[in-house]
Amino acid sequence: MRIEDTDQTRKVDGSVEALTHSLQWCGIHEDEGPTAGGNFGPYVQSERLHLYKSYADTLLQDGHAYRCFCSQERLKSLRDAAARSGSGTMYDRACLGLDAVQVEEKLARNEPHTIRLKVSEGKTTLKDLVRGYVQFDHSVIDDQVLMKSDGFPTYHLANVVDDHLMGITHVIRGEEWLSSTPKHLLLYQFLGFEPPKFAHLGLLLNEDRSKLSKRQGDVAVEDFQKKGFLAPGLVNFVALLGWNPSDGNTQEIFTLDELKHFFSMDHVNKSGSVVNVERLRWINSKHIRRLFDDPSNKADVVAMLRPYLLNHVKNIDAFDVEFVWAAASLMKERVGALPDFGPLIYYFFAPPDLEASTAVEMKAKYWNDHTTDAAVADVTSRLQALPEGGGFTSNAVMALIKATAKDRNLNLKSLLMPLRYHLTGMEVGASIGDTFQLLGKDVALGRLVGAPSTTTTA
Description:
Elements: H1 15-25, H2 49-61, E1 65-68, H3 72-85, H4 100-108, E2 114-117, E3 123-128, E4 132-137, E5 145-147, H5 155-165, E6 170-174, H6 181-191, E7 197-201, E8 204-205, H7 221-226, H8 231-239, H9 256-262, E9 273-274, H10 277-291, H11 298-309, H12 321-330, H13 341-345, H14 357-366, H15 369-384, H16 394-407, H17 412-424, H18 432-439, H19 441-450
Helix pairs in contact: 5-6, 8-10, 11-12, 14-17, 15-16, 15-19, 16-17, 16-18, 18-19
């Protein structure tokens, strides 16, 4: 892990800590870096300025770079002229014509200046691991600034120097850096370094296929973390943006260890990938289900759910871990992110709000005057005869409800939905048998007996 902070104007307090936290949350831990240490430090670029100056001096001495004393005003006028003409912005090499005496005179007057790469004539060919062979004509490559007037390097010099000194073998980055790669290859050549392998990935795109931008939605790891996505789900989703495991392997759900096993650059494609949140929710739902595969995780899972349940159940802490785990387990198949649990299981912890619009609509949809009331009353009476505890099970309750529907010549759904209305106030939820069992006999019958009749008598 290397902190690239050479652009001091964009430095944000706390950003390094946030980055480290996001990586750790995803299960990605630095082998070496600012915190872990290592043999190639320091790992913060602003602490390596002496190294960049040394290599910049080498480029100057060897004639592969030159000092540029042009003012910001002059450079702006060049950019404006290029914009008006519709041509690409390139420095006009005005300072390349300065002789040694002129340069020394300007240095003696402490005139601010930068150091620019002197691009040679010719062409550069890159063998990209994703895009294959890409050729660049040097005539359209700008003399890039390598050292700024404040003594800090630009990305271009700093990364080439650091990647070499730190033994980096592969540079994997977005395709927006492809046009800069010939400059980097020239720097490797001029400094006598062996270049690493390069891979330029397709961009991440919004639904409208524009470049992913925080102006149009969430882009930061912490955004998705706050919205209740699991780290394994998010990592799984991101890994599949532009990559697939192999020919014939249709697996879509991976742990981090499985991704490490299957990943290969051979199966990375170069096209952009749309960040589809619905697909993220689907992948995340599979990882949520896995949380419930190991009962030894009960306490951790309930602690994870607690902040989201609090929005719907203020007294959630009054319920033990076993009960919350059991309620969440019943709805694990229906959620795409952790906040989904709250509105789907709140009725296990508090009576449903039968005044809510969804409940009112449900009652109007499924009630049939006295017939429905009588059927619910019949079920209630029969349920009272079931013994509490071991006898009040999902299977026993469902058998009783089916028998009641048969005896009264009713369609099963026409009885299940009114019962669900009284217990949950929702059309969708856990199976009615499981709901009765988890609520327990007293609470469940209390909701049936205590519910007002939907019909009135004269």
